[in-house]
């Protein structure tokens, strides 16, 4: 397992896959343990790095992860098998904004780590699948330190992406249904707990 994780880290470097930073996944794994999280929904699997580590947090936790890119999906399946995690991780090949989950499904933790410009859409869609007291954790809230600094950027794709993450931060701060804390670890995490 340790060896497979190291290989995934190298594959991510070689192929420019933005996998989660180590302090951030360590925080999420600890959260899963301490809060007895039993099921996780992840949006944005990439090659399975974060889903495999989340699934290895405790004996009982189960992970469903969604990926829309076929090459990454295939790589994710391969890695889940290599790690012997087929029983703990369900990999779904679909665009998360088009997917219709079974109405009754509920998760203790939803991890948003897909297209950074669509965070509000993911949040609004998937908050309906949380258990009471459940949490939505979002990665890359700092986006390499650009978030909060968009006014200094020239017009372009980067600026508009950073502005969207800034809007997401405001959306979370003003969301009456959720209490959000922002953690300055890795590329920045938000932890939004449903007040119900
Ligand atoms: N969570 C992974 C990294 C994910 S990178 C890890 O830390 O190991 C973001 C991934 O989200 C990319 O592979 C991208 O293809 C996927 N993605 C982006 N938008 C998506 C969408 N709408 N539905 C499903 N996957 C999406
Ligand atoms: Mg990320």
Radius of gyration, whole Å: 16 Å
Largest sheet: 7 strands, mixed
Query: Portion of residues in helices?
Result: 25-40%
Q: How many domain modules?
A: 1
The strand count comes to: 7
The secondary-structure element order is HHEHEHEEHEHEE
Structural class: alpha/beta
Shape: globular
- What's the arrangement of strands in the largest beta sheet? 3-2-1-4-5-7-6
* CATH topology label: Rossmann fold
> Residue-averaged pLDDT, rounded?
97
Tell me which ligands are bound: S-adenosyl-L-homocysteine, magnesium ion
The CATH architecture can be named as 3-Layer(aba) Sandwich
**End-to-end CA span:** 38 Å
Q: What fraction strand?
A: 15-25%
The first-level CATH class is given as: Alpha Beta
Helix count, per DSSP? 6
Fourth CATH level, the homologous superfamily: Vaccinia Virus protein VP39
* Unreliable stretches: none
Structural notes for this entry:
- By secondary structure, this protein is α/β, with parallel strands linked by helices.
- The chain has one domain (2-194): Vaccinia Virus protein VP39 (Rossmann fold, 3-Layer(aba) Sandwich), CATH 3.40.50.
- The protein contains 6 helices and 7 strands; from the N terminus they run ααβαβαββαβαββ.
- It has helices at 2-14, 22-34, 49-55, 70-82, 119-126, 157-173; strands at 39-43, 62-67, 89-93, 107-112, 130-139, 178-183, 189-194.
- It has a 7-stranded mixed beta sheet with strand order 3-2-1-4-5-7-6, sandwiched between helices.
- A hairpin with a 5-residue loop joins β6 (178-183) and β7.
- The longest helix has 17 residues, at 157-173.
- The structure holds S-adenosyl-L-homocysteine and magnesium ion.
